[in-house]
Design a protein that fits this description.
- By secondary structure, this protein is α+β, with helices and mostly antiparallel strands.
- The chain is built from two helices and five strands, in the order ααβββββ.
- The protein has a five-stranded mixed β-barrel with strand order 1-2-3-5-4.
- Strand 4 and strand 5 form a beta hairpin.
- The protein starts with a helix and ends with a strand.
Length: 121
């Protein structure tokens, strides 16, 4: 019986540690969403419709805001050259200020990048 108790005392913390490492790695890699290829999006956004991507960006400014609907932000892509406009629906309740850096998870809807979630980094 002592051997089983010792075995459980070793296995349970090891499994918990493995789970934590898996979650942290998954989040560090974009939560399962591949990186956005901004050049490809600009050239042929139609082929990307319905797909989900992630990218790191710095807010350049707010282009427009419509109460109850959301806002349109200009974001500098930090993983490549260029700026992109992203639509942030009202449900993503977050304050955005010029210069802030975020990791965006977006969905391609028509020719718009719609933000699904945002994380500080």
């Amino acid at each position: 019986m002592k051997n089983n108790t010792l075995l459980y005392m070793l296995i349970i913390p090891a499994l918990a540690l493995a789970a934590v490492v898996a979650v942290v790695s998954w989040r560090a890699l974009g939560g399962g969403a591949p990186a956005l290829d901004l050049e490809r999006f600009r050239e042929d956004w139609r082929s990307l419709q319905g797909n989900h991507y992630s990218f790191k960006g710095r807010v350049d400014g707010q282009v427009a805001y419509l109460g109850g609907v959301g806002r349109l932000l200009s974001v500098q892509n930090l993983e490549g050259a260029g700026r992109v406009a992203v639509f942030v629906p009202e449900e993503v309740s977050r304050n955005f200020e010029t210069g802030q850096r975020f990791k965006f998870k977006v969905a391609v809807n028509a020719d718009v990048l719609a933000v699904e979630s945002v994380e500080d980094f």
